[in-house]
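Q: How would the C-alpha cells look for this protein?
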Amino acid sequence: MKAVGQLRESMRKDRQWSFMYSLLDVELDLSLGVILYLEGVSVSFDGFKAIDNLSFYVNAGELRCVIGPNGAGKTTMMDIITGKTRPDTGSAYFGRTIDLLRLSEPEIAALGIGRKFQKPTVFEHHSVFENLELAMAGDKRVFPTLFARLTGEQRDRIHEVLGIIGLQGQTQRAAGALSHGQKQWLEIGMLLMQDPHLLLVDEPVAGMTHQEMDRTAELLLSLEGRHSVVVVEHDMDFVRSIAKRVTVLHQGSVLAEGSMDEVQNDPRVVEVYLGE
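A: Here is the predicted structure in C-alpha cell form.
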C-alpha cells in the first residue's frame, strides 16, 4: 500500500508529465532474489481462456526466454505484466510488495518495466542521438524540452547506451535510414535510457539477417545482470544462443521449464511445439 500511495502522490497534476518518464522513488523489494511474481493468473476473452492458472517467476538480473506455439498466451502474459490486460483471477507483483494489478500502464512503465514490441517504433525523422535524448527519463513538458541543455552526465549516458547497442557510428543518421536490425537495437536503447529494472522483448530477431541476429544475441546477453530481461521468441537457434533458462507456454499455462536441452527433449514440448 505504501508503494501505491507513493505512486499516486507522484501523479498530482503538477507532476502529471514527469512521472511518466522518471523511475519513481519506490523501493523495489528484491530480498528473495525475484523481481516478477505471477501466481495463479487466469484471463478469458469471450469464453476463451487465454491464460489458465499461470504461475511464472523471474529472478533479478535474469535473462529468461519464453517460447510456445501461437495462442499459447505469451502476448497476453506480457499484457498482464504491463497493465494492458487485467486478469480475472490471480496476482502479479513487481518485487515482493508492488501490486501491478493496482496500477495503470503509465504507472507500471514509470516503475521500471519496459516493453519492446515486435515492430520497432522509433522517431524516423530524428537522428539516432535525438531518439535516445527524447527517450531519456526526465521532464518532457514543452518549455523544459525547448530550453533544456544536456548535462555532461546525460551525454555520457547517451554515449554509453550507443556503445551497448552498437550504434556509435550512426549518431547523426536519421533513424528511418537504419536497417531493420539497427532500428530494433535503437528501440532497445531508448528503453535503456529510462534505466528499467525489467525489459520485456517480443520477437526481437524477426526479419533480421543472420549477422544482425548474432549482434542482437550479444546485446541481450550484455544486459543480463544489470537488468532482468524476458525474451519471447520463435527462432529456436536464437533462443539456444542466449538462453540459460527457458519457459514453455501452452494453452495459457507453463508446460515446461529448464535449460534449452531439457525443454527440447521433453516429449510434451516436442508434441505441442518443437515437433510441429
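The beta strands are 34-45, 48-59, 63-67, 89-94, 98-99, 113-116, 198-202, 228-232, 245-250, 253-258.

Residues 108 and 256 are 28 Å apart (CA to CA).

Upvote if useful.
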